[in-house]
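Here is a complete protein record:
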Amino acid sequence: MKEVDSSTYKIITIGVVSFVIGYFIVLVFSKLAKNNNNKCNRYVYNTKVITIFAFCCIIFYLPLFAQSFVELIRGGSFESIRYTNRFESTANTGIYNLISYFIIQPFSSCLELIAPIDFWFGKRDRKLFFTTMILIFIRMISDAGRTPFVNFMIYMVLCYCIVKGNKQKTKQEKRYNRIILSLFLVFALFVILYISISRSSSGLSRQLYFYFAMAPVLLNYWISLPESLSFGLASFNGFIFTVLYFLTNITGTTYPNHFQNVYDLIAATDSTWIPIASGGVTANAYVSLFWFFYNDGGFAGIIIYSLIYGMLVTTVLFKINNLSNIRFIALYLLLMQGLIFSFIRFPFAKAQYCITFIIILILIHKESDVKI
């Protein structure tokens, strides 16, 4: 790997320490605050409505799935599918991209999350679970991507960890749940390994090494470029872009200059391939969440944003411990998914992630106030 400046490691260290401090701030205040209110809200979701959304997503992905499936039957690989889709995606119409980016992808992400919640905490609706699995399978074949299935695996494990701590479960129930999770993980790891090997000509160990080692190199490159501070436009680009996209298209105006510059810079981190090691090895995108924080506010941005992020994740974590509330469980799962992949980017910089966050708040709605 290319050499990384000490200042880059300093940024990473400050960010991690600030995130941990955010955790302890919430921990201390949660112990000091005495909540005497025993009333909480019960949240529910409509499995029939969500299953209908799943079918709509399946229908949307079917043409691309059929094309990729035929290519596999003819002897193609997942690597060739990725290569083909990379060029064909630019040829799609504006309306197709709009529906895909702002509707289908966020709803698909919601389904990856709600199905595990329903499996571990709900009624284990078979239609919802298997429809979601079919959707994930179709998406994996369509674009040779592992992300939907990896996310689903993460959510299944996190939900199990929450259920495992439930003292109301009998030993037999806990043993049954452990067996189910173990069988699922064996199957999931096999699928992920197969796709990983099939979609790249390099060895699996080499892939894993670069995935986790290249973020400091790319962070080092992008923070070295002279850019003006973006003051939140980078880290929260997902929310801001979604609003401005529809406003500019409705009014026929253009994006503000400063926002456009920040948006182009974020896009450049995804599209520009930077040398990261000898032998002509290049990579893109993996700038980590700290690039977004640094771009927004320099070292102060690293401290403040990491602190707030740590406080947010911890607050939601304590909410699920105290209330066993499925809405907070859903938000916790989404936040943890973003945190796990924060070595790639800050999740709230993506419109899809932000829209998924909002959809969860809508789909998992309040039923009534109940006394516990």
In short: The mean pLDDT is 89.
